[in-house]
UniProtKB/TrEMBL annotation, chain A:
<dbReference type="InterPro" id="IPR051393">
    <property type="entry name" value="ABC_transporter_permease"/>
</dbReference>
<keyword id="KW-0813">Transport</keyword>
<feature type="transmembrane region" description="Helical">
    <location>
        <begin position="92"/>
        <end position="110"/>
    </location>
</feature>
<feature type="transmembrane region" description="Helical">
    <location>
        <begin position="283"/>
        <end position="307"/>
    </location>
</feature>
<feature type="transmembrane region" description="Helical">
    <location>
        <begin position="229"/>
        <end position="248"/>
    </location>
</feature>
<protein>
    <submittedName>
        <fullName>Cellobiose transport system permease protein</fullName>
    </submittedName>
</protein>
<comment type="similarity">
    <text>Belongs to the binding-protein-dependent transport system permease family.</text>
</comment>
<dbReference type="InterPro" id="IPR000515">
    <property type="entry name" value="MetI-like"/>
</dbReference>
<feature type="transmembrane region" description="Helical">
    <location>
        <begin position="122"/>
        <end position="147"/>
    </location>
</feature>
TrEMBL record, chain B:
<dbReference type="InterPro" id="IPR006059">
    <property type="entry name" value="SBP"/>
</dbReference>
<protein>
    <submittedName>
        <fullName>Cellobiose transport system substrate-binding protein</fullName>
    </submittedName>
</protein>
<feature type="signal peptide">
    <location>
        <begin position="1"/>
        <end position="23"/>
    </location>
</feature>
<dbReference type="InterPro" id="IPR050490">
    <property type="entry name" value="Bact_solute-bd_prot1"/>
</dbReference>
<keyword id="KW-0732">Signal</keyword>
<dbReference type="Pfam" id="PF13416">
    <property type="entry name" value="SBP_bac_8"/>
</dbReference>
Length: 315, 427
């Protein structure tokens, strides 16, 4: 009887319900498995090295000798090190010099490509990507030769205008400019295509309506294109900030030295890290620079986040 | 998105660091070589020193031996790669280390085979004492066998000297500059006459040469740092500033693109030429063959450079590597290498060999480079090279270069240089 009762109860319970509960547990767990690979890879290649860097920064760490615990000495030494502040200054200067022209140029080009009835429009759009797919090393070697003091194309051309040869690599502003030109050249096409993609999502009708109302090209650009590009602009500012803090190959290759010149005129933070960690083999000190760089990136990312949330309501 | 973009950057270094941590502990290798097939081994060298000539000759003489030679990069890059390899635990069987990079490794001898246990005690007398002592650690462990020393001389363009009305014969040219001051005076005459620069740059062609002459460089014989008080360093520094202020330098940093181009185009007439530099000139300016000649260096004997062969502790084929060392670095082996590639032997027993004394170089107008470079080592007073020698030299050189580029104040250059060295090495 008991059995039949329970059976009848079981029968009374809608079978669909139990199945649905079971399924929903599986459904709840499954997504975690789908995203697990990223977090596993991140843990192995991101988090563990990150934590290990913090750990190493507390030591006087000779890679082939002793590891002596020295607490926060590396950090206090770093804050008092003129070379660190110089590298920070250079990094920011190069970042500003490369990001501002790059984004402005990309905006204007994207607007042009979006509107102009060009022959071979696809060709022009695709050719924007050529600098982006060129290797950084190749770019750097070519630009370094073009900007050479004695045998460079640029100084040769300037010579016709009666200008004395400029030694770009040896001066502070010159080397920053040279690196900024390389970074701009490499990235503006990529940024242009990002902007272009966004611009093409804007209905033509809006532009046509504006034109009917008498708005010229510039007014259309200011009042339609730029506002609708805001999220993409924020995105490119964020990526270029992070990219700017990473500039390494260009200064290393134009100078062929870890200091980037006699007075470290173009030594960036990552190059300073490389010099200390892998040139002088002060792993602890190098790790401390890495931690400082990490903090800087967090600060930059936070500023960017605040900026982007501030402009979101206007959308 | 932010995190994904941030982490790889900051931590590219950390990755290498974590590898270092994994491998650092595994140092329980026995001191006697074992394992391996004793027929093949891996050899890391740097470029520009032509170890391939030795390797090829050795393989020809010893059929069945397989040597995997890798030219890692410059001498500094090779030392960096070695450090990373030692920290990571996966090492080559044999490695070439440049003299300036050696002290860091000598201070940590536990990373290398003590070559005495392989028989270095028996052959160490074949080599110059002071060269051998540089690779001997405090506890007496010998970690490297010297392959060559960097005797010094000056390479000059005879054709350009002729245009400037200077003598072209190497004997007479050598007599033009018994001292560095006379060298600078000659430069002034050349520049006044031709309007062109006399030498490539002051930091290497004056400072690096002059500072390597004499008994005490950056360290005293017992290993204390004395760069700020060593008269040899200050004199060399002042001489190079004098050359800069005389306006006779082309301001071309050694091994830069401008330097290479300028060398081919005769932008300067004189380059400092430690024996290993001759190969660089040959490679970088092949069209100038026959226009160069080699004269003695101002200021007398000295040494710049030189390299060592070492066997890392974790080497799998240490025995094969050691056999290679003993055969190729014997006095006869070093002589053969000199005749092929031009680096000066470290084995004094061959210094009087007719083949070495008689060695002439066609590229350099038949200059008797064998005799010139061996003579530059006679009467040499060796100095101690310490773990920070390379970093100290770099900062001093940078200060000179800065004045040369017209950015630095010559009156403040020395104080700036000392301050920068102090920041760099912490003492």
């Amino acid at each position: 009887m008991t059995t039949s009762l329970s059976t009848s109860r079981a029968v009374q319970t809608p079978p669909a319900l139990t199945t649905r509960v079971r399924q929903s547990i599986g459904e709840r767990i499954a997504p975690y498995f789908y995203i697990a690979p990223f977090f596993l890879i991140f843990a192995v290649f991101g988090l563990v090295p990150l934590l290990f860097t913090f750990y190493v920064a507390l030591f006087d760490w000779n890679p082939i000798g002793e590891h002596v615990f020295i607490g926060f000495d590396n950090f206090s030494r770093l804050l008092a090190d003129a070379r660190f502040w110089n590298a920070l200054k250079n990094t920011i200067s190069i970042w500003v010099l490369s990001t501002v022209p790059q984004l402005v140029l990309a905006l204007l080009l994207a607007h042009l490509l979006n509107h102009a009835r060009l022959r071979l429009a696809v060709f022009f759009r695709m050719s924007m990507l050529v600098p982006y797919i060129t290797s950084v090393a190749a770019t750097t070697i070519v630009f370094a030769q073009m900007f050479d003091r004695d045998y460079g194309l640029l100084n040769w051309l300037l010579g016709f205008a009666g200008v004395e040869p400029i030694d770009f690599k040896q001066s502070v502003w010159g080397s920053h400019l040279l690196i900024a030109v390389m970074v701009t050249w490499r990235w503006f096409g990529y940024t242009t295509l990002l902007y272009l993609a966004s611009l093409q999502a804007i209905p033509r009708a809006i532009y046509e309506a504006a034109a009917v109302d008498g708005a010229g090209g510039w007014k259309q650009f200011r009042h339609i294109s730029i506002p609708s590009l805001r999220p993409v602009i924020v995105f490119t500012v964020v990526t270029s900030t992070i990219g700017g803090l990473q500039i390494f190959t260009e200064p290393l290759l134009i100078s062929r030295s870890q200091t980037c010149g006699a007075i470290r005129q173009c030594q960036t933070l990552t190059l300073f890290l490389y010099e200390q960690g892998f040139g002088q083999f002060q792993f602890g000190y190098g790790a401390a620079i890495g931690v400082a760089l990490f903090v800087l990136v967090i600060v930059a990312a936070t500023v960017n986040y605040l900026l982007s949330t501030r402009i979101r309501p206007e959308r | 998105m932010k995190l994904r973009n941030v982490t790889p950057v900051v931590l590219a270094a950390a990755l290498a660091l974590s590898t270092a941590a994994c491998g650092g502990g595994g140092g329980g290798t026995p001191s006697q070589p074992s394992g391996g097939d004793s027929k093949s081994f891996e050899f890391w060298s740097f470029s520009g020193i032509d170890q391939k000539a030795d390797v090829d000759r050795y393989q020809k003489q010893n059929p069945g031996v397989q040597i995997k030679l890798t030219e890692v990069g410059s001498s500094v890059e090779t030392a960096q790669a070695l450090t990373t390899a030692l920290a990571g635990g996966k090492v080559p069987d044999l490695v070439l280390i440049q003299g300036d990079d050696l002290p860091k490794f000598v201070q940590q001898p536990q990373n290398f085979y003590d070559l005495r246990q392989l028989g270095a005690d028996k052959i160490k007398g074949d080599y110059l004492d002071w060269v051998m002592s540089a690779s001997t650690a405090k506890g007496g462990e010998i970690i490297g066998i010297p392959t060559d020393v960097g005797g010094m001389a000056v390479a000059y363009r005879a054709d350009l000297f002729k245009e400037a009305g200077l003598p072209t014969d190497r004997e007479e040219v050598g007599k033009l500059w018994p001292t560095w001051d006379a060298f600078i005076e000659t430069g002034k005459k050349y520049t006044a006459k031709t309007g062109k620069a006399f030498m490539d740059n002051a930091a290497t062609s004056v400072f690096y040469q002059a500072v390597n002459q004499g008994p005490q460089k950056y360290y005293d014989p017992s290993g204390n740092v004395v760069y700020s008080t060593s008269p040899q360093v200050k004199t060399a520094f002042d001489l190079s500033l004098k050359a800069v202020q005389a306006g006779i330098t082309a301001k071309q940093g050694t091994f830069t693109e401008g330097w290479t181009a300028g060398m081919g185009k005769g932008q300067f007439a004189v380059i400092s030429a430690p024996s290993w530099m001759l190969g660089s000139i040959r490679r970088n300016a092949p069209d100038t063959k026959g226009k160069w000649d080699v004269a003695t260096i101002p200021g007398g004997a000295g040494n710049w450079g030189g390299s060592y062969l070492a066997i890392p502790k974790g080497a799998k084929n240490a025995k094969a590597a050691w056999e290679y060392i003993t055969k190729t670095q014997s006095p006869q082996g070093q002589l053969a290498h000199f005749l092929d590639a031009g680096s000066l032997p470290t084995t004094p027993s061959v210094y009087k060999d007719a083949q070495l004394i008689g060695m002439k170089d066609e590229f350099f107008s038949g200059a008797p480079i064998g005799a010139i470079y061996t003579n530059s080592l006679l009467g040499l007073k060796p100095f101690y090279i310490g773990p920070d020698s390379s970093a100290i030299g770099q900062e001093l050189q940078n200060a000179i270069t800065n004045v040369e580029q017209g950015k630095g104040d010559p009156a403040k250059a020395w104080d700036t240089a000392l301050a920068n060295v102090k920041t760099a090495i912490g003492k």
